[in-house]
Amino acid sequence: MRDIDTQADPALFASDLSLGYQERPGRAFQAVEGVSVEVARGSSLALLGESGSGKSTLAKYLAARATDVVSKTDRIQRISGEGRVLGTSLTKLSKKATRNLTAHVGYLQQDAGAKLPPEYTVGDIIFLPIEERIKGFDRSQLGEQIAEMFDIVSLPLTYLQKYPYELSKGQRQRVAVLQSLIHSPSVYIADEPTLGVDANNRPKIVNLIQWYRERTNPTMLIISHDIGLLEALIHDVLILKGGSAVGLGSIDTIFRHASHEYVVKLAEALRANAYDEIAGD
Description:
This protein has a domain at 12-113 and 186-272: 3-Layer(aba) Sandwich (Rossmann fold). 34% of the residues lie in helices and 25% in strands. The chain has helices spanning 55-62, 95-102, 122-133, 139-152, 169-181, 202-216, 227-233, 251-256, 261-272; strands at residues 12-24, 27-39, 44-48, 76-85, 88-89, 105-108, 187-191, 219-223, 236-241, 244-250. A six-stranded mixed sheet has the order 6-7-8-3-9-10, sandwiched between helices. A four-stranded antiparallel sheet has the order 2-1-4-5. The chain is globular. 39% of the residues are buried.
């Protein structure tokens, strides 16, 4: 098996990609329909759309987590078209090839803070991606990195000894974002990174992702309804509706000069609800 090409351009690629789920025998659900998009190395793309538009499914597939499932109905099974990440085709990836690829792809699943393993301390949780992917890592150097990351998101280092149930919803989400970035991936795919975090602490997550971007020049694919995050981090936007792409362009074009009625309404809704979420922290 060849090495992963972390310099591949485009880093993320989809051509006429369709993704679906087998809900039960004889009944299927199509989540993504004929989507084509490219994200150049070092660039960033936001996926936007209403609930059920296929954003999370597309993100999960491009993160090479199609088979990460809670139940059989979570498995992406109906796949057509082409998807590539860092030059690697996602078609019929072996387990070994998937492990090799995901060592270079950071993935924050939707509502990740609520899904932290309860039996591990925060410190154990943050170390998991490193222990799984990097042999012989420098613990002292990593400790300095963790201290810097904790400082950026305003979490005391004493929280390394705490368990998820001892943290608020917003604190758990910050830990999840930390974990997804700890191994400095070449590609970062995040599904609502500020979900559950109050307005005062959302900019800290943005600052952490900016810190990571300055260090690694990654390719980023982000789903978010946080307009502050989008305007700080995103170059381009892909709008999905009913699983299909209905808008693609720069964030300035999408938010200020959109012509498609659905895209205009979505942009207006994002502005109107910029910081109305009530979240515990």
